[in-house]
Design brief:
Blueprint lengths: L11 E4 L12 H7 L3 E4 L6 H18 L2 E5 L2 H7 L3 E4 L6 H8 L4 E6 L2 H10 L3 E4 L16 H11 L4 E4 L7 H6 L4 E4 L1 H4 L4 H20 L3
Parallel strand pairs: 1-2, 1-8, 2-3, 3-4, 4-5, 5-6, 6-7, 7-8
Length: 219
């Protein structure tokens, strides 16, 4: 079920990092300046007002750069702030319910790990999918085993919406994920943990741009 807002979905997604008391907005200026085109605000276990304030700040930064702002989990906050979309996990509001509330132009992402779940999410109204972990990662606890590029490829082959690979993504691994069919990648530590977040973001953006150009070039 394609939706109007899917044109807003860029290729390089940065998920905000609030681990160990970090400022979730700290690396946004450098990342956006480097060309990161999607920011996903993820704040687990925080109060409504705090989440809203961070989303509003992230959205203002995104608007200055023409980037897309998506909110993890919280459809209510995403709509209240005027964000571009929401990303829903297994324990969040069902995709169909979110679509009924948000309307056709709102980006709704869903986390999936296999082709069956991918097809179900798209049928329910997801405009894009996040899949992984592609590789082992320390950025989020309690994740299942990595699915690898082959698992990403299986999800991509099952649906006709963009698929974003997440989990252990680095600039060096982007080529394998794009070859598997991924539209883009989502990262936390690859940028947030880097000594120079801006330089790390530029490497990711450049890798994605180069590979996308090859995929779309005639012949």
């Amino acid at each position: 079920m394609p939706v109007e807002g899917v044109g807003l979905l860029g290729r390089c997604h940065l998920i905000t990092d609030s681990r160990d008391g970090r400022d979730p907005l700290a690396v946004l200026p450098a990342a956006l300046d480097a060309g990161v085109d999607v920011i996903q605000v993820r704040l687990k276990g925080r109060g409504d007002r705090e989440v809203l304030a961070v989303v509003e700040a992230a959205l203002a930064a995104c608007r200055a750069y023409g980037a897309t702002c998506i909110v993890d989990d919280r459809l209510d906050v995403a709509l209240a702030a005027g964000a571009d979309g929401v990303h829903l996990g297994d324990e969040d509001l069902p995709v169909a319910a979110a679509r009924a509330v948000a309307g056709p132009a709102f980006l709704i992402g869903a986390t999936v790990r296999n082709p069956g779940a991918a097809r179900a999410a798209v049928e329910a109204g997801a405009s894009y999918l996040g899949t992984g972990p592609a590789y082992a990662t320390a950025s989020k606890a309690g994740l299942p085993d990595p699915i690898g590029p082959s698992g990403v490829a299986a999800v991509c082959a099952a649906v006709d919406v963009p698929v974003v690979a997440i989990g252990g993504v680095t600039a060096e691994r982007v080529a394998d994920l794009v070859a598997a069919g991924a539209h883009g990648v989502a990262v936390v530590g690859a940028i947030s943990d880097a000594p120079d977040p801006g330089a790390a973001a530029r490497r990711l953006v450049a890798s994605l741009a180069s590979l996308a150009a090859r995929v779309t070039s005639p012949g």
